[in-house]
Amino acid sequence: MSASTAPADLYRHGLRLLLDKDIPAWVDLWDENGIFEFPFAPEGWPERLEGKAAVADYMRGYPDHIDLHDFPYLEIHQTTAPETIVVEMRGVGRLVGIDSPLDMSYIAVVTVKNGLITRYRDYWNPLAVQNTAADFAGSNR
User: Helix and strand tally (H, E) in the chain?
Assistant: First the structure.
């Protein structure tokens, strides 16, 4: 993606990469100093990742735990700051370890500068996967 890529376009591209399970390409959408935050992280799960390397480490095993199939609902809201969007979406798929359906709603606040994600606040519902084999990415429970 280029430095002139609009945040909404970059975000949509990132969703396509997640559906394609191309985690390295998704991580490449991040700035070296990008911050990934999880305001509702349950105990033992990361609340904040600092830097592209930390994001890559967190996402490395994602497809082994969550098999995304679609984002049947996606609404992207532009904020008064041109580099920041608010995303409402629903992701569906499967929790791999227990072969159980996944149907989760998300809200994300994403900031993009120079064509790369610099901040991503992921307001996901941890109750949807808290007691499942989706326990990954730094969880020490």
Answer: 4, 6
